[in-house]
Amino acid sequence: MTDLKVSQSFINDAATLKGTWDLPTGTAIEGTSKSSALSIRYDAGSGSYSVSSDGRNQSFSASDVSSQDAYDTMYRRTDGSRSETLILVKQPYTGTAAKRYVAMGSWQSSTVIEGRQSTEFTSFTYGLPTASAMVPRTGAAAYGIDMFGLVTMPGEEPMSFQGSGKLSVDFAQGIFTTQTYATEDGLVTDKGVSGGGIELRAGGSLSSDGGTFAGNAVYGSSYGQASGTIAGRLYGPNGEELGATFQTSNAAGMAAVGSLVGSRDATLTPDGQTLTTLTSGQYFYARSGSSGGGSITWLNSETFDYAPYSSDMVGGRFTINEKVVSKDANFTAYAKTGDNGYGPQQVLLELYKPGSANSELALTYASFGHWAGTRAGSTQDFYFTYGFATGGNFLAARTGKARYEGLAYGTGTGASARYDVKGTSSFDVDFGAQTFGGALALAGTDRASGGRTDFGSFEMAGTLAVRDSSLAGVVSRGGASVGSVNAQFFGADAQEVAGTFYVNAPAGVGIQGAIVTKRR
Q: What is the pTM of this model?
């Protein structure tokens, strides 16, 4: 890409921000962003580029070059009140090495009338994509990322942003995730802003041929957070590089578009993305109810640390030496005894197996645990969920509906009996309305007598909180509230839902437990 010899059109991905700026105050009036279809062609004979998108067409020749340096070449054309600017980046602004097979660029068309500037800014990546047959199908890789883009907010100064980070690809699972930090620079005052969540977070899936990828994206600016989408592809003979563009917006009028390019970096470790492919240490926030549930730190396939929710719960390190035979083959069980200042406590910790090791529900991103601690003859039960939660605000721009189906496990406590509870669960989610409905069907086995009790069916309903991709609502029967449910989306594309619940069942039995489901 740095030494083109022949005329050619380039495969690309593009996104466009349309905005209106008030020049006397140097602030934005309005702005929108969207994915765009772009055509870009290089003519080797004249050394010119022709670009077109959304009804705009322009050609830039060598005579239109207004500036160039080691980082980029800027082409500029003017016609009265209208100006056209094409910037082709040769070396990322963060100073990393130039890419061989992919490049980023921007094309800006602006018109100034009576102190107002109307702008169409298209950010794009283009180059020599990887053939489908050459896309890796196994393993994982980390790409060092460079990013550039534009953000606008009504009443505020438009700003460009640039930064660097890492994009991790799991080729075997066909998924990716990235977190790229940025610095924003004012286009009027040249002020610089960094830190405090100024970043791109994105994740999603590779296409069936593996050469392209797409998913959810959130750009965090000094002006707030905006949600949208990202789309890109692999470049080079064997997927050595990648390029992508993203577009985000929010209800307050903030809009952002940007591009990123990257190359494989063996010095970087790919981030874990599924519970079934962990290879290095991974911290998981555990969730129970509407509050925290402690944490699990995965160290290796036989060792993890569990930090309980409460100080009177014995946790600590669990290894192969604490592993015991589980009464259910779909769980891995651990037993230990400890005393954290409240007296000796016997602990049984059961973790629901993810992936193909589970014969009833093969989860990829979510799981749950059941901690049971017995002290002085009294047993306390605690359920929690953990895994790769869907990113905050990933679902803010999502519309449509989805159904999730799965299982429920729990413990029932009555006046004179304790029950092992199991059943089915489902969620019907309306992303556009940010609401959900659902159902639970529960039955229990008396731990003492072995007798079985059918607790019947329950309804669930509530709302989504896009800020942390969670769900919260009530459990009811016959129109009367009998409990609560709190859950979380898991996976970059909200592929799974897991949570905890509590219900007051018939015959005075209180049931607490966990729900795990997959999108159908």
A: 0.93
Please give the residue range of the domain that contains residue 242: 8-264
Where is average pLDDT lowest: 66-70, 255-259, 509-513? 66-70
Distance CA 16, CA 35 (A): 6
Is residue 96's pLDDT more than 90? Answer: no
Which structure tokens are listed for 140? 């994982």
Q: 512 to each of 367, 419, 478, 501, how far by Cα in Å?
A: 16, 11, 20, 6
- Distance from C-alpha of 67 to C-alpha of 46, rounded to nearest angstrom: 18
Residue 57, strand partner residues: 52
Residue 276 resides in a domain: no
Residue 195: what pLDDT?
Answer: 84
Q: Cα dihedral angle (96, 97, 103, 109), rounded to 10 degrees?
A: 50
pLDDT at residue 94 in the model: 78
Same domain for 338 and 298:
yes
443 vs 423: CA distance, rounded Å: 6
52 sits in which H/E element: strand 48-53
Sign of CA dihedral 265, 271, 273, 275: positive
Note the pLDDT of residue 517.
Answer: 98
243 and 305 assigned to the same domain = no
Q: Give the whole-angstrom CA distance, residue 406 versus residue 440.
A: 10
The count of structural domains within the chain is: 2
Residue 200: its pLDDT value, please? 97
Residue 402's Cβ-side half-sphere holds a number of Cα atoms within 13 Å equal to: 18
Q: Give the CATH number of the domain where residue 193 resides.
A: 2.40.160.90
DSSP labels for 212-228? EEEEEEEEEETTEEEEE
Q: Which residues contact 321 (CB under 8 A, 6 or more apart)?
A: none
Q: What is the mean pLDDT of residues 78-101?
A: 90
- Full DSSP string of 390-431: PPTTTTTT--SEEEEEEEEEEEEE-SS-EEEEEEEEEEEEET
